Amino acid sequence: MNVYTMRVFYTILLLTLSNTFMTIAWYGHLKFKDMKWSQSLPLLVIVLISWGIALFEYLLQVPANRLGYKEYGGPFSLVQLKVLQEVITLVVFMIFSFLFFKTETFKVNHLIGFAFLVLAVYFIFKK
């Protein structure tokens, strides 16, 4: 694997991992009501727990952006990095919501929205 391909791979991997932590930090606490240990925790404690989880997002997101950004020798422009991150965020969120929130459903309008996101990625990356 050449350096360019490695930077693409590691950027996407780090963005995926960082978004996994962020999704857990932002939405994971909504499942705390199902866990006996957390039912009586005040909101401030929940915020601090989420903040601690989000720290790992930053520890992965910042290196991903540095590794992937053209100005640092990466393969992506700033806009491409942002669009890539948003698409990864939505994919991670959908997987998370289906695994942990069984009441959520996948509808046709979601599929259409994802198709538009794929088109957005196509046009953002088109030279």
UniProtKB/TrEMBL annotation:
Q: Quick check: keyword Metal-binding in the entry?
A: no
The cross-references to Pfam families, in alphabetical order and at most eight, read: DMT_6
Assigned keywords, A-Z: Membrane, Transmembrane, Transmembrane helix
Q: Which InterPro entries does the UniProt record give? A: DUF486
Q: In the UniProt record, does the keyword Membrane occur?
A: yes
| Membrane-traversing stretches | 7-28, 40-60, 81-101, 107-125
This protein is called DMT family protein
**Species in which this protein is naturally found:** Ohtaekwangia koreensis
